[in-house]
Amino acid sequence: MTKVHVKIKNLRDENHLKQRQVADYLGISQQAYSYYELDKRELPSRHVVRLAKLYNVSTDYILGVEPDRAGSYDLNATFLQGVKLKDVLISLRKLNKNNKKEMMKYLSYLNSTQSNHPEKS
């Protein structure tokens, strides 16, 4: 079972956040937050709830009750040859709001045409 301090550090790293950013979100000092990641202080339940919202995971996942995130994917899995799923998601996050909307329209269009002509994976 992964410990809470390891989970919150991994989640922060996956989301490319600095300790200062997470600490600000929680309304605490960066040093106080670093103590949670270093397992020098126990993470209060109010922070577990806020971190679960920040990272879009369950509190059970952070606490180690559930081993996997609901709907989780292996970010290191190959999306296309030479492209990992993580790289696709990072690129999507960089899009502005209008481009994200356009991208979703295009994906919807592609999915609708694919259902008529499915390609073997």
Number of strands: 2
Strand content: under 5%
Helix share bin: 55-70%
Secondary structure tally, helices: 7
Mean pLDDT: 87
Q: What CATH architecture label of the largest domain applies?
A: Orthogonal Bundle
Order of helices and strands: HHHHHEEHH
The CATH topology assignment of the largest domain is: 434 Repressor (Amino-terminal Domain)
Domain count, please report it: 2
Distance between the termini: 35 Å
Going across the major beta sheet, what is the strand order? 1-2
The radius of gyration over CA amounts to 18 Å
The low-confidence parts are none
CATH class of the largest domain: Mainly Alpha
Main β sheet profile: 2 strands, antiparallel
Mass-distribution shape: elongated
What class, by secondary structure content? mainly alpha
Q: Oligomeric form of this entry?
A: single chain
CATH superfamily of the largest domain: lambda repressor-like DNA-binding domains
Structure description:
The chain has 121 residues and is mostly helical. It folds into 2 domains: 60 residues, lambda repressor-like DNA-binding domains (434 Repressor (Amino-terminal Domain)); 39 residues. The chain has 7 helices and 2 strands. Strands 1-2 form a two-stranded antiparallel sheet. A hairpin with a 2-residue loop joins strand 1 and strand 2.
